[in-house]
Write a structure and sequence with these properties.
This protein has 136 residues and is of the alpha+beta class. Helix content is 35%, strand content 31%. The mean pLDDT is 91.
């Protein structure tokens, strides 16, 4: 019957008793299924992790400049990773780097949440911020 109608006989539910089959154009079915998957993938929003690097000796004005960068990242719907990089003997005073991160966190308090609290990884002290409001 399927070949007379120029269609394919497709088994829809092989585990049921009796098995369920359907007459359809299988090539057209696969094509529409791939188009739907492609359209769904096109509409989804990917969130990126943007990074801002500082040092413990970063000046106040430079920190304010980096705060503006982080605000822009969060407004675009991305996450922001703030990293303090220690060089040489700066590792002796990690509390200075912690103060820099606290300054950033306090300045961005109204628009961001701390997703990952400051964490030391070798010569890097970093935290991750996310936006409080979801971007459209």
């Amino acid at each position: 019957m399927a070949t007379d109608a120029n269609l394919d006989l497709v088994e829809v539910s092989p585990n049921s008793k009796p098995p369920v089959c359907k007459f359809m154009d299988y090539g057209k079915f696969k094509y529409t299924k791939s188009k739907k998957a492609h359209d769904a993938k096109k509409k989804q929003k990917t969130i990126q992790l943007k990074e801002v690097k500082l040092t413990p000796k970063t000046d106040k004005h430079d920190i304010e400049f980096k705060i503006n960068h982080v605000k822009r990242f969060l407004a675009d719907g991305n996450k922001a990773k703030v990293t303090v990089v220690f060089k040489g003997r700066e590792m002796v005073h990690p509390e200075v780097g912690m103060r820099v991160l606290q300054t950033m966190r306090d300045a961005l308090e109204e628009i961001s949440l701390v997703e990952q609290h400051p964490k030391q990884e070798g010569r890097h002290l970093s935290m991750i911020l996310t936006s409080k409001v979801v971007a459209p």
